[in-house]
Amino acid sequence: MPGPDRAQFQTHVRDLSQLLDTITPDVIAKADPAAATMRAYLASLVDERRRAPREDLISALVAAEDEGDQLDEDELITMAALLFAAGFETTTNLLANG
User: Are the CB atoms for 46 and 58 separated by under 8 Å?
Assistant: First the structure.
């Protein structure tokens, strides 16, 4: 994810990661729009990288091929969201707990 865009997703990642602790109607009410916002952003980023690849992970995922198979659109977006959220949330918690 481009550096200038990362900060806007801090709240969304936190809202999504709450689902890992407790599932309540309030948590779901925050997580659903956060997921939709992240998916929409990542879908546009994937489309952009298909048109103009760069030296980044999204471009590598778009180009990845295993025995002729490639990730479909949903798989690409899900993988990108997982990698971003896991890297962000893990690092934040590790630093906070350190």
Answer: yes
